[in-house]
Hints:
The chain has about 180 residues and is of the alpha+beta class. The protein is built from four helices and 13 strands.
Amino acid sequence: MATALKHLNADEFLLWAEGMDGRWELFDGVPVMMSPERVLHGATKGEVYAALRTAIRRAKLPCRAYPDGVAVRTSAKSTFQPDASVSCGRTPPIDALAIDDPVIVVEVLSPSTASIDHGPKLSGYFSLPSVEHYLILDPERRVVIHHKRGTGDAIETRELTDGVAKLDPPGFEVAVEAMFPPPSA
């Protein structure tokens, strides 16, 4: 179905995708349907969203955590649906399909999307001036790959298996363990 479409810009895509079944992203003007998710992937998305929301409330910051489904436009031709995100500052209208100013973006790694998460999404998210942190969660290894905006165009990367991810700005920490579902017994 996506191959029969003309190239779309981000605004056209958001209106088009709203009426479609399934979840879609826009890569260089071409709509791409997202794959079904495994249980571990979905559980990890829920845990990281809850952990971010709890940390924001504890820090009493004027930020909002969003679960998956809220799009982020990274260019006129690309729109991604991160697994969770955090925005601070102005609150978007309740009928908005995308946020324009995420500070934190999270993707949960899956075998079919690893190269996209580490490639086009990494560069796409950091093309937005508001993005300070891009977290890639590997649920199988229970590792957080924390990409942080550094000085100039530099992006600092750390792998975290325990402790906390320091997300400053906006000014809070999240325990690595809290971003993953409890280990299976």
